[in-house]
User: Which sequence fits this backbone?
């Protein structure tokens, strides 16, 4: 089974083998280096690379490294389109609940936190209920 997170990252990178090789081990089962090192070293690749790597790592482990302001400011039109396509895939595929071998072995601790935040987005029933309680 193909990992939904890995597929979202592939879409984000425009299926660029160089970026995928940079981020993942040769077997594609894990990160090539620690996340902080990957983001720091990505600055040597180009201006947009640290943003792409930060978003990819957020897809991978549910961290909070990327900022929407950086995405809209630093990505060119093609990379921004890839970002939108990857985000749409990530949400539609339920990547936060991926059932591949890697994800079923080790669930990120932040997954529940992310699910709670999504449940509190405007327009969702739980958001409306939560706001009505506070009002």
Assistant:
């Amino acid at each position: 089974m193909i990992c939904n997170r890995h597929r979202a990252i592939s879409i984000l990178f425009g299926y660029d083998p160089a970026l995928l090789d940079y981020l993942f081990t040769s077997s594609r089962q894990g990160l090539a280096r620690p996340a902080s090192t990957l983001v720091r070293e990505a600055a040597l690749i180009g201006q947009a690379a640290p943003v792409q790597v930060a978003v990819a790592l957020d897809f991978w482990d549910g961290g909070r490294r990327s900022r929407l302001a950086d995405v809209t400011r630093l990505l060119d039109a093609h990379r921004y389109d890839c970002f939108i396509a990857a985000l749409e895939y990530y949400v539609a595929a339920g990547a936060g609940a991926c059932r591949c071998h890697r994800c079923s072995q080790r669930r990120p601790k932040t997954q529940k936190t992310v699910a709670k935040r999504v449940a509190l987005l405007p327009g969702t029933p739980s958001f409306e209920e939560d706001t009505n309680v506070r009002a």
